[in-house]
Amino acid sequence: MTKPNGPHRTLSIGGASYDIFVNVEAMADTKDGEQVIHLPVGAKVMIDRIQETAGGGAMNSSVGLARLGMKASFCGVLGDDQWGQRLMETLKKEGVDGTTATVAEHETTGFSIVLLLPNGERTILHHHGTNRHLDDVTFAQDVIPQCDAVYLNRLSDDACIIENDIVAMLEKHPAIHLTWNPGGCQIAATMNAEDKAALLKQTDLLLLNKEEAEIFTGKKDIKEQLSILFERGVKHVCITDGKNGSYAYDGMNMVHCPCINNVIIVDTTGAGDAFGTGMTWALLAGKDLKNALKAGTINAASVISAIGAESGLLTETQMIEKMQSVSLEISSF
User: Fold this and answer.
1) Looking at CB atoms within 10 Å, which of 106, 116, 131, 227 has the fewest?
2) The CATH number of 9-15+56-109+131-332 is which of 3.30.450.40, 3.40.50.300, 3.40.1190.20, 3.40.190.10?
3) In 42-56, which positions are buried (b, 16+ CB within 10 angstroms) versus exposed (e)?
4) pLDDT (average), residues 289-298
């Protein structure tokens, strides 16, 4: 089929979640090197407020790309319950094509209860729900040839079976851009797994955080991680490191981008997805690696300034304005 003219058509593949945010005044401390929160057993814990939003990797990236001017589609599985209906309403409101979604009858849509701490950090109680049903039967792989870009988000264990279908489609249509943001079982399998190695060869933008990159590559040094992933076939490799900023490599330029100063952190949920959609938008627009990093950083900073993974996502007009007004010292390292 012939691709339509106009904005880039994108397909976001992966999970969806109905997120319920709860502000809690919980005690937090450090145990075994990790920050933990304490809620007293048997007590009634008072909360400040509740806020409900859409979430999940494919929901976030499809909405993010739509706001940035793309003709975005969502490919995932929702239930026919009230949460699934609300997520479909969100897709429609945001201008995302939901016809590539599957609705499972008498099933529970994926959902999360997000406990928000006063410092913006959070603990997520998550139920996969219908996300586990994303497989060869529900995956709309025939849509891929009509797209300019595919955004592959974190997949549940059962859904990883579709990776082979994606590789097969991209081998037939090499001009299609692939952004891959792996997680969970995909990271644990490492880059040496046969299916992951095949997917890396088709990847235009790979997104990992520092901890994920170490597990995925088996290497501790960021330069070595960037180099080895590029050697595996990835065109643009990006590794984020929280408040330390992000690092990227395209085979010629190995650069570091700091975070934006003086951002008030309200909620970090969805920051990675916002970063990835910003970078994807920039690369599809023909921008270089430094400007792609800048776009990702700007989008992520906007998202962490609001509650939820999507409320702070920028429009294309806002992004262009901020690309011109925000100054970031992006340097080689």
Assistant:
1) 106
2) 3.40.1190.20
3) eeeeeeeeebebbbb
4) 98
